[in-house]
Write a structure and sequence with these properties.
Blueprint: H1 14-26, H2 33-46, E1 51-54, H3 57-68, E2 75-78, H4 85-92, E3 96-99, H5 111-117, E4 122-126, H6 137-147, E5 150-154, E6 175-179, E7 192-195, H7 199-208, H8 233-244, H9 246-264, E8 287-290, H10 297-306, E9 312-313, H11 322-328, H12 336-344, E10 345-348, H13 356-371
Length: 378
């Protein structure tokens, strides 16, 4: 329908078109000069010196945990409330994700629960800055130091977020991963980036993203196991333009979030994203509400669709996916906070350029469903 309001939409303009076209005409579509140019620009933006652009956030997480030292048989403490790649990447290396419950306010991994989940086979921790809100890294870092664990930060949803001490998310000196899917704060189409704590780690990641080749090796000389995780120059060209306008993109997302915050505050029983607190500052990735207990979330998705508004359950609990149930024996009731949030969470249309009129339509549709639900939505 012509007045359909989508869940997400990237904002690209003439500069993006110009750089992509220039790259296309150059004939250097991969392993060309745009890669280093994008890495430098992104690193300058996030305050990181050692950046490796990769084909996706998932690829970045895989390379990061390998560089951190994960081994088959290891256990890694992480959150069950995330996109599934933050757990799947551990399975790629034969490690086991050990889930623990989340903080009911921030929806990030609960540091106390994480510390309690550390066992004899635990070698690392993989926290996620969910929905762009900074995880409590000081507490998690303290546990990691005390127990001798590695840390990899999944910052795929948190570009532009800032910790209470003023440190941008992803620049604390841990291996950290960002993602640039079209619904993210900025996009390269597909793509991601790994932030390394030093040059040696970057050399390893740069090699493993390119089939195990080292920079000075010949075409058929590979000195380690690698993967095809490169980011092509067309994507890098798009990313260069997006980095240059990132402040504007972030401001637009904050504008839309402010519209929703004000208009939805009056809806009884509807829980909105937590406000910034303690000096932590969110970077708006998605706008996710938690519906009142009496509302059937899946029925609400259908009701919104009937009103021309896209929405999505965001996010299901990873441990309750059929694959994780069957492989690890997970069951309902293990992580009650996560499961309650997952059962009621709903992502609303959210992107730069969402108009005031579109936001009003979304708000009115949510208000109708949440405040005066028909019997089939109860």
């Amino acid at each position: 329908m012509s007045d359909w309001i989508p869940l997400a939409r990237p904002l690209v303009g003439k500069r993006e078109e110009q750089l992509v076209l220039e790259t296309l005409r150059s004939g250097r579509l991969s392993l060309g000069p745009r890669l280093a140019e994008f890495e430098e620009a992104f690193g300058a933006r996030v305050g990181a010196e050692h950046v490796s652009a990769v084909s996706s956030g998932t690829a970045g997480l895989h390379l990061a945990i390998r560089a951190a030292g994960v081994r088959a048989g290891d256990e890694v403490v992480t959150t069950p409330f995330s996109f599934v790649s933050s757990a799947n990447c551990l399975l790629y290396e034969g490690a086991t994700p050990v889930f623990c419950d989340i903080d009911p306010r921030t929806l990030n991994i609960d540091p106390g629960a994480a510390a309690a989940a550390v066992g004899e086979r635990t070698t690392g921790m993989l926290p996620v800055h969910i929905f762009g809100y900074p995880a409590d890294m000081p507490a998690l870092e303290a546990t990691a130091r005390e127990r001798g664990l590695w840390l990899v930060e999944d910052a795929c949803e948190a570009l532009g977020a800032v910790h209470a001490d003023g440190t941008p998310v992803g620049s604390r000196g841990n291996l950290s991963v960002f993602a640039f899917y079209p619904n993210k704060q900025m996009t390269t189409g597909e793509g991601g980036a790994v932030i390394s704590p030093g040059p040696e780690v970057k050399v390893r990641i740069d090699s493993e993203r390119n089939q195990g080749r080292a920079p000075d090796m010949g075409w058929l000389d590979h000195d380690r196991l690698g993967f095809n995780y490169r980011l092509d120059d067309l994507s890098c060209a798009l990313g260069i333009a997006q980095v240059a306008r990132l402040d504007d993109l972030l401001a637009e997302r904050a504008r839309v979030a402010a519209l929703y915050n004000e208009a939805l505050a009056e809806v009884e029983g509807l829980e909105l994203p937590c406000p910034d607190a303690g000096g932590d500052r969110r970077s708006w990735f998605v706008y996710v509400v938690q519906l009142p207990q009496a509302i059937d979330r899946d029925a609400a998705v259908l009701a919104l669709r009937e009103r021309g508004v896209d929405s999505k359950p965001y996010l299901p609990a990873i441990h309750l996916y059929s694959f994780y149930r069957e492989r690890f024996g997970h069951r309902e009731g293990e992580f009650p906070v996560c499961e309650d949030v997952a059962r009621r969470s709903l992502a609303l249309p959210f992107f730069p350029g969402l108009t005031d009129g579109q936001a009003e339509r979304v708000v009115e549709a949510v208000r109708e469903i949440a405040m005066e639900p028909a019997p089939e939505y109860r």
